[in-house]
Amino acid sequence: MALLEVHNLGVSFVTRNGTNKAVDDVSFSVESGQITAIIGESGSGKSVACYSLLGLIPQPPGRIDGGRALFGGRDLLQLGERELRKIRGRDIAMVFQDPMTCLNPYMTVGKQLMEPLRYHQNVSPADARRRALELLEEVGIRDPESTIDNYPHQFSGGMRQRVMIAMALINEPQLLIADEPTTALDVTIQAQILQLIAQLQRKRDIGVIFISHDLAVVADIADQIVVMQKGKIVESGDRTGIFQQAQHPYTQKLLSAIPADSKHSELLPAEPLIRVRELCTWFSQGHKQPPLQAVNKVSFDIRRGEVLGLVGESGSGKSTIGRSILRLVPVTSGQVDFDGTDVTALQGRELKKMRRRMQIIFQDPFASLNPRMTVYDTLAEPLLLHGIETRKTVAQGVLKLMDDVGLARHFVRKYPHEFSGGQRQRIAIGRALATRPEFIVADEPVSALDVTIQAQILDLMQALGREYGLTMLFISHDLAVVRHLADRILVLHQGEVVETGSGQELFEHPQQDYTKSLLASIPGRSLLQ
Amino acid sequence: MWRFIGYRLLQAIPVILAVITVTFFLVRAAPGGPFDSEKAVIPEVRAALEAQYRLDQPLLQQYAAYLGDLAQGELGPSFKYPGRSVNELIAAGLPVTAELGFYALLVAIIIGGVAGVIASLKPNTAQDYIPMSVAMIGICMPSFLLGPLLVLVFGIYLDWLPVSGWGDIPGDKILPAITLGSTYAAYIARLSRAGMLEVMSQDYIRTARAKGLPEWQVVTRHALRGGLIPVVAFLGPAFAGLLSGSFVVETIFQIPGLGRFYVQAAFNRDYTMILGTTVFLSTLIVLFNLLSDILAAWMNPRLRAQFREQ
Amino acid sequence: MSSEAIVDIAQAEQGTSLWQDAWLRLRRNRLALFGLGVLTLFIVIALLTPWIAPYGYAEQDLDLGASAPSATHWLGTDIFGRDLLTQIMYGGRISLAVGFVATAVALLIGVTWGAVAGYAGGRIDAVMMRFVDILYALPFMIFIVLLMVVFGRNLLLLFLAIGAVEWLTMARIMRSQVQTLRQQEFVEAAVSLGLAPSTIIRRHLIPNALGPIIVYTTLTIPSVMLLEAFLSFLGLGIQPPQTSWGLLISYGAETMEEYPWLLLFPGMALTLTLFSLNFLGDGLRDALDVRGSRD
What we know:
The complex is a heterotrimer. In chain A, 37% of the residues lie in helices and 25% in strands. Among the domains of chain A are: 1-88 and 201-256, P-loop containing nucleotide triphosphate hydrolases (Rossmann fold, 3-Layer(aba) Sandwich), CATH 3.40.50.300; 92-172, no CATH class; 361-434, no CATH class. Chain A contains 21 helices and 20 strands. By secondary structure, chain A is of the alpha/beta class. Chain B is mainly α. Chain B has a domain at 92-297: Orthogonal Bundle (MetI-like fold). In chain B, helix 6 (143-157) crosses helix 7 (174-200) and helix 6 crosses helix 9 (215-252). Chain C is mostly helical. Chain C has helices at residues 2-11, 18-28, 30-52, 84-120, 122-137, 140-151, 155-183, 185-193, 197-234, 245-254, 261-288. In chain C, helix 2 crosses helix 11 and helix 9 (197-234) runs antiparallel to helix 11 (261-288). Classes of the chains: A alpha/beta, B mainly alpha, C mainly alpha. The interface between B and C is large, with 51 and 40 residues.
């Protein structure tokens, strides 16, 4: 018999604007000793389905419409709060997405770790502490004796997630629910945490539900895969079944959204549009402290018409390089030549002229648009500012941009909050293209988007790049995406360039250790080959 | 941490000095001398008086001398009560005001804190609306209105409680403490509700629930500390408010405290008394602000660690 | 072709701006609407008082003395036989004027100060905010009492003194708004488009910083009115022949045993106004989705 069997689960949210069926007729099962992955984009109901099993959805507005969830011979959905509490943290434990916010900042890690143990079992403080230390050691916290009494903020993100995992396992539960446990982490850390979860699961022979938006992440560890869309299960099966013979078009779309090829770049004319020499951008961190050397002596060229990929983990300085070239942050020293002009020396009118020629697309489509301006206002502003269109022709210019980025014309008087993430990113791209730039910095332009939307936006950017003859600096933490799009790739680590080469060169013959470890961390490597 | 406290204390010095300086010159700049109201003082007597209060010296010299006195904890003689010093008046009034303020603060923290936390546990239900509506009344009903109303209802119509004095009849401390504390109880209720709501929406509360902790433990062990930090930070300003509120409450209930002395001194134009009390009260307020800041910072491990490094 | 485009755009469905959204939310909040209604009514009455007051301001009837509410004097009369309703209407003019004018003073100084500090950043910001910190630590209530004692009870001085206290919080809010907004990517995008700083402030910063400012302004007015009433009650604020609600409450408190209506009605006027302003402020805060601006 399966460890957990969910039959026909339905969950709704009742709001003033009506009832929203978040989970509709969902059935799946989890076996002991197996990892079941539930895959879906944001709003697909994958988290709600799991939270509702443990009574962790506030009711109201949440409401369980029906179904059964058999666990250890009992129906979880029929249990009262008191009985559910006995199961939570003892038989079924959870790990959440963002380790930065999931630990109580006012309590030492040790106390939080021991809490489930002390609450569910009659354990003496000394024993609890011993057990906590053992687990910390097991999840890979170095020197637990001296860190157990630290507060969460003294740990890095990856370490905090290890603590969360230790906390979930401290009562030796039969089932672990991990809700996007690696989404907030860097690639290399993500790989470590995935490995850790798989290893702990095998050792304990427990069941795991792994919730994720990213099929690639679970490719290496999942035994069973359940794909959800809009509250319903569209497909489920074992790993090989899903990856090799996906039936449902949505699953196929998810699979094809994982870009697996290197861009084959044609030989380009050697003339560089941008020459960056010995660029240093440092940030002051208050007096008496050494400045943060975000970018340190970085030199590279971008040839006209080329897409240069810039890859690195958070804190590698990749965004700062893009912003330095555009003069959005003050450059400490070094030179940035754009078509023969040193950008770092420009002022006033000259700078404004230069700004027209280079634009930027940001990561977060919710922060990059002024919430109080309509699409029309947002797109008309650069057109009028640089005299690209006159007052008479500006309306036409705006509509042309909307056509180019694939936004329906009738949206022209809508405000940003009325659009989805992908649509907003299209508006932002339109704004960047409005000045007819030669060069665009794309700073993680798809990492805030759902996987299927990512593919659409990447396609759009590729097409527009060709149409407008753009040179591009494409910044991303996601090697697969960069490989797919970039002619050449620059690997960045702690503010310095580690390695350069074409996608093929880097992927097949990485020279530096850091590049190798980065490549080894790519989730779903098995899919890429 | 000690360095942080030391640093903040150092910061408080210019503030206190500024208070002293501004007050001193403001009072000296006041139109009309202190003895103008007394009719026809003989010039010799007047000169003697002025000499006694150093009014015959140049202003800067007076200021320097005043600073010197202050450094020795000497606030100067009263203009209006010859033979009595400001120190003595403060010594007489302070214990009364301190006691009143303490009770009021107690009322504010206990009633306000409990009401706020209770309201935050079931937002947008009767359990939230009722205490919060009462709190709104508390904010909109200033002490100088609430005091007389309480006197009218409980003192005169119902005749349950004494309406004036301090420590003379049993129960005469109840109405003043409630009057003074009510506004701050209301503020604290709103602050703690907002703080708790903020904390209860944090991810780590979900973690605590996923551990299987019962709701009351989630609240007491995980939510309260973070939720009440804004309340602690508010205690400094609340203390300042209580002091100035005591002006009114002590007047209404005829309590012989510092607040009433201050108001009387203001009406009598007893300049040394005003000057001395202002300096004294201001220093007290600055110190209490400091205290509540330090306490609030101490409750946040992250800030605490930063201070330790400084 | 170009005129076609204009027609296209004119026919496109009009989006709902955040302001419209906020208004829709506010309209659903009954308490806030009640507050808005009462406030509007009181302001209209205050503006029209000289023409609609039932009696003249100085009119008294010493023979009548204090009388309970009646058909001729709806809210009764005070010990000099003056009509209480008339007194409250004239007092309201002063109380509301103090509330609005002093808040306007605070708004002007605070917003400018905060915006400059927030936009300039760096050393200028540090110095400007340090100054605010120091002033913050000063016990202003005591200072206002002192000012009133030293310079006499002067309405203009009262405006300035209260305004001078309240601008500090306004400056802090404005600065933090500007600072947060400056780091927003849409402001960076505006910079990279080449827009001039003045345009960025006007088109991108101010419209987005307005919400918290509106909310805080609405909540500052009642605290200013309280301050005025407090001073007047102590006899340090408004003084005869002028009157205000605080002063009327102070008179009422003296004679409340015999003539409780003299305390109750001015008290109700003040409390109702404060209620309205606070409800409106809270409603605006929810409608505009402003968080953490105050309590």
